[in-house]
Design a protein that fits this description.
two-stranded antiparallel sheet; 1% strand; 10 helices; 2 strands; mainly alpha; 320 residues
Length: 320
Amino acid sequence: MTSSSTVPPAGAGRPATPAAPTGPVRPAPSARWRRWTRPVLVANLVAQIGIIVTGGAVRLTGSGLGCSTWPQCEPGQFTAQFHAETTYHQFVEFGNRTLTGVLSVIAIATLVLVWTDRTRALSYRLLGAVPLLGVAAQAVVGGVIVLLHLHPGWVSLHFVVSAALVSVSLLLLHRSGEGDGPPAPTVPPRTRAVAWALGALTAVVVVLGVIVTGAGPHSGDDEVGYRLAVDPALMSRLHAAAVWVFVAVLAAYLVSVRRAPRRVRSAAWLLLAITLAQGVIGYVQYFTGLPALLVGLHMLGSALLVAGTTRVVLTTRTRS
C-alpha cells in the first residue's frame, strides 16, 4: 500500500508574478512635457518673424524714439501711458517692446524643453539656447539704438540679427523632427552646393535690402529722410541685381532637383513662390513711391525668404 501524496499546484515554489496594471499607463512627467516641444518651437519661429514685422512698424511710423529711454519707456515709467501730450509713437514702440517680452518667455520655454531632453544629441540641445541669447542681444542692441538716437548702423544690425534668429529658429524646428545620426545627403554634391549658394545669396540680398531701406525715406527717423549717405537709386539697383542672380540660381536648383525626394522639391517650389511675391512687392513699392504698407510687407517677405532658403538647405540632407 503506497502512501498518499498531494500533487503541488502548478507554479508552486515560484514567486508570484505581479498583476498587470488595469488602468492606463501614464508617461513620465518629462515625456508629457516633451509633447509641447514642437508647438513651442513653432511659436518661437512665428514670434521671431513677428518681431521683424513690429520692428518694421516702429521704423515705418517713425516711432523709434516713441519711448525716450531704455529699459524704461519714459523716465519713471516702464509702460506707455496715455495723457494729453501722448502720441501714437509711444504705443507703437512700447508694443514692439511688449512682443520682445513675449518672445523672451517663449525663448525660455524653448531652452528648458530642448536642453532637458537628455535623449537628444548635445548639438541639438545647444541650439535651444540660441533664441534666448539672441533675444538678450537684441534687447541690448535696441537699448543702444534708443540711447544713440537711432544710429543707422545699429538699426541695420537690429534687423540682421533678427533675420539670423529666424534662420536658427527654423533650423531648431527642423532638427526637432529628425534624428541625431550623421547627416546623409538627399541630393548629389553639386546640387547641395547650389543650395548653399542660395543661402549665401540670401545673406547678400538681405543686407543690401537693409541698406536700401536705411538710405530711403523709411530709414526710421521722420525728421531725417536719408540716414545712410549712399545713393538710394544705386543701392536699389544693386539690390535688384542680387535678387535676379538669386532667381537664376534658384531656377538652376529647381531643374537639378526635379527627380529629388518630394520634400526637397516642395521646399524649392515654396521658396520660388516667396521670391516671386517679394519681387512683385519690391518693384511695385519702388514705382509707387515706397508706401509704408508695401515696405512693411516687403520686410515680412524678407523674413519668409530667410526661412524658406534655410529650409531648402536643410532638405538636402537627412538624419536617421
